[in-house]
Write a structure and sequence with these properties.
This protein starts with 24 loop residues before the first strand and ends in a 23-residue tail after the last strand. It contains six helices and ten strands, in the order βααβββααββββααββ. The protein has a domain of 96 residues: GTP cyclohydrolase I, C-terminal domain/NADPH-dependent 7-cyano-7-deazaguanine reductase, N-terminal domain (GTP Cyclohydrolase I, domain 2). It is an alpha+beta fold. The model has no long low-confidence stretch (mean pLDDT 93). It is elongated, with a radius of gyration of 20 Å. Strand 7 and strand 8 form a beta hairpin.
Length: 291
């Protein structure tokens, strides 16, 4: 059995008591080697942001406390955490008594989660517990053009549903800058093969730029690809980097929630091109339609 399949795809009893041992780390290099990413720190910077919408615990007097847990950790960590194991771990805290009152309980909850995740991921974790929706709808991708609205796109034929970088063609207009997105991102879980839906945002400046139609066809070709969310983001980044040699490249994948958790990785060749709000631990950004 692979590391990733320790709980994913297995029939596992939900722990009813605090159970940090159920967390499963997955080495990032298992997928990076496939795409010739041997020195990721030279290729990109980035973060993985996770929103857990079913986070909670009990105070000492038994009062449930519920909210949204936001986790942020860097792309240079040796491992990611397998999502089902994180779900089971967080559920194991649902009936755990953690504080004399709500503020002390939240503090203990965050300290516990941070400590347990940092131990298995071998990196620094930022964690915030939100009890209320934000007053301001922070969002990083306001000025991105939706590829599905490309003129004539409905007359195009889409036939590739397995990842195919040869679909990517250059524009005839030469150098420039694009900020484009698509809500047609879909890939499959690496282990269970269940579909994962999402949106992808691409910012690129280069002497050659991908034609919008060909870029959408490439995104659609990910439809039957079996990878974790972080791996889809890095694979797409690497394909664009190798083919177009951009001066600026940033790729963000905002996946919809499954099992009460959504995963939103971003990669960029410089930190300044990463989303400002998505990876800010203290800010809860606006959800997309399907999140």
């Amino acid at each position: 059995m692979s590391i990733e399949a320790k709980v994913l795809g297995q029939q596992v009893a939900y722990p009813t008591d605090y159970c940090p041992s159920i967390l499963v780390p997955v080495p990032r290099n298992l997928n990076r080697e496939i795409y010739d990413i041997h020195a990721p720190e030279e290729l990109f910077q980035g973060y993985d942001t996770w929103h857990a919408y079913e986070a909670g615990f009990l105070t000492q007097n038994g009062l449930p406390v519920c909210g949204v847990l936001k986790l942020v950790y860097p792309a240079n960590s040796p491992c990611i955490v397998e999502s089902k194991s994180l779900k089971l771990y967080l559920n194991s805290l649902n009936m755990t008594r953690l504080g004399e009152d709500i503020p002390s309980g939240i503090k203990t909850y965050l300290q516990t989660v941070k400590s347990d995740l940092e131990q298995i991921l071998q990196t620094h974790i930022e964690a915030t517990f939100f009890q209320q929706a934000p007053e301001k709808p922070y969002f990083d991708f306001q000025d991105y053009t939706l590829l599905e609205t490309t003129p004539g796109i409905e007359r195009e034929t889409f036939t590739e549903y397995s990842e195919n970088p040869t679909l990517l063609e250059s524009q005839t207009t030469g150098s420039g800058e694009i900020k484009v997105c698509s809500h047609l991102l879909r890939s499959n879980c690496k282990i269970t093969k269940q579909p994962d839906w999402g949106s992808i945002y691409i910012h690129m400046q280069a002497n050659r730029l991908p034609d919008h139609t060909s870029l959408l066809k490439y995104i659609v070709s990910l439809r039957n690809e079996n990878h974790f969310h972080e791996e889809i983001c890095e694979m797409t980044y690497k394909r664009l980097w190798d083919l177009f040699h951009p001066e600026i490249l940033a790729v963000s994948c905002l996946y919809t929630r499954r099992g009460g958790i959504d995963i939103c990785p971003s990669r960029a060749n410089k930190a300044g091109y990463l989303p400002e709000y998505l990876h800010a631990p203290q800010i809860l950004t606006r959800k997309l339609l399907r999140q």
